[in-house]
Sequence to fold (272 residues):
Amino acid sequence: MAGGFLKEEGLQARHSVSAPGTSAISGLVDGSVHVAQSAPSQGFGPLEQGKTPPVLHFAQINEMDGFFLVGRAPEPQFSWQRLQGRKLLVDHGAQPLAMFRYACHKRGLNVKDAILVDAGTTEQMIEAFKRGEGDYVHLQGPGPQQLAQEGAGHIVSGLGPAVGPCAFSSLAATREWLRTDTARAFMRAYRKARAWLLATPAAEVAKAEASFFPDVHPAALTETIATYQKLGNWTPHVEITRAAWEATVDIFLHAGLIKRRHRYEDVIAPPP
Fold:
């Protein structure tokens, strides 16, 4: 939207955020939304109940966890073992928490040795950390970069390198919509947008999309985009690969959130 790629394809787009407690998937089901930002793990819920997921995930957004750990002081030699006995304000959403636990596992930390605190929403977590609660806070960009910009915290580690590539976030739609000419036009725009995002300096991207982040300092937004570009969160390919899917299945099995492996084809569709 910020780059004008949808408009180039003749598509008029409206952007909205789901109300708290309302799944973006519900908008796809009731027909009020064509495309929703989601995560392939959304399909686990219906599958665990023996049901067919109501939508399919057809393109990836992040192929890596986009969260960071923010501490109260710089830690250039940060080790995950430092989290032992520390109070961590951790995002308790199903996927963020599963990914956090898996990161601890991959880095050799028994997550039971840390104190995980549910401080509420992202905004509540940030305010709690600013009030002095917790030793570290676990947030998705640009929250950590904004805290650093304000001098209220220091990013000590990213979750992405610890977890590794996985099917993290995605675009989802109904099976019916994915068969339309509009879906194909949308996908052409999305591919162009991804190429632009990877090839364009972070400061230019931040300037283009600043209106979507009115409360974020431009320097923090630029730093977030530059970090994601460097880490490889946004890959040149847009498909949700089988390898990325299987990695996410591993993560959710490790967290005990699913009881068995689920089929790629039951959740993932090729881009239209």
Observations:
- The mean pLDDT is 96.
